[in-house]
Design brief:
The protein has 277 residues and is of the alpha+beta class. Helix content is 49%, strand content 14%. It is globular. It starts with 8 loop residues before the first helix and ends with a helix.
């Protein structure tokens, strides 16, 4: 078995700066979180150092080795991340949803068209690609525009909780439905809405799949400095062949170099523009 390439020290330092893994640049407010997401393009919410890629939780901690504790309720950094997530969702300036493979992510508005080109379901495709439960939930939500979880479950007729959750997750992964607010009193609930209401231009913009793969790869490589085999696929949820297509397109235009099979690095001039490696 071929040994897994190691991330060089200078690349880790580059990621520290770009991914806010430094105590002097950690995220403390919702505005900080939005600026971080806009800068990096996309980020996970509550992943820690055991998973690759940028993460709001790690940026809140401001350190490279952040690990989520078992008792997250009593952990101030995990609690702050959760509070910031709720504030960011309510402000509606960045995209937040559960994507393919159950990956909960934030997207900067500029990245929405590219993710939608890969994972989105167009209205003309809904009958063919969405389940009956998902279509029932969506039909109600398009009429009412915003509804709480319990109200939407009752109105859609999808009374079984697991079936309802699967339907909502399916609509999130298809980039049709997003949470718009979170309430904890009188009981915990999400308020759901149709994503096009918040990001109409970004979701209406059409780009080719090849362009989308290239731009998602560009966004990740700009923040990561270098990617090793399987890393970008794990972070984004892309199949590995698609991740490779995106990276090879960057090599073809001179944005990146291929150092070894599956290992891509920012070209020297691009690295200097982004922040020297």
């Amino acid at each position: 078995m071929r040994p897994k390439p190691e991330i060089p020290a200078e690349i880790e330092e580059y990621r520290d700066e770009r991914w806010r893994r430094e105590g002097t640049r950690q995220v403390e407010t919702a505005l900080d979180a939005e600026r971080f997401i806009e800068q990096i393009g996309f980020a996970a919410c509550l992943t820690d150092s055991r998973r690759p890629g940028p993460s709001l939780y790690v940026a809140v901690c401001g350190r490279r080795d952040a690990v989520m504790p078992r008792n997250v309720q009593k952990d101030p950094e995990a609690s702050l991340t959760w509070v910031l997530k709720d504030e960011v969702v309510g402000r509606g300036k960045v995209y937040y949803a559960k994507f393919a493979r159950g990956k909960t992510m934030f997207l900067a508005p500029r990245m929405i068209p590219y993710f939608h080109a890969v994972w989105g379901v167009r209205r003309s495709e809904e009958k063919r690609r969405l389940s009956r439960d998902a279509r029932a939930i969506l039909s109600v939500l398009r009429k009412e525009w915003e509804m709480s979880t319990s109200e939407l479950r009752d109105a859609s007729g999808v009374k079984d909780r697991k079936a309802f959750t699967r339907g909502v997750d399916e609509l999130q992964a298809a980039m049709i439905v997003v949470p718009s607010q979170v309430f904890y009193q009188p009981k915990f609930t999400y308020i759901w809405t149709v994503g096009v209401g918040r990001f109409p231009e970004a979701l209406a913009r059409r780009v080719s799949r090849d362009t989308a793969l290239r731009e998602i790869a560009r966004c990740f490589l700009a923040g990561a400095g270098m990617t090793i085999p399987g890393e970008m696929a794990r972070v984004t949820g892309l199949p590995r062949p698609d991740a490779g297509r995106g990276n090879r397109a960057l090599v073809a235009e001179g944005y990146a170099t291929m150092r070894a099979p599956g290992v891509y690095q920012l070209a020297a001039s691009r690295a200097l523009e982004a922040g020297s490696l």
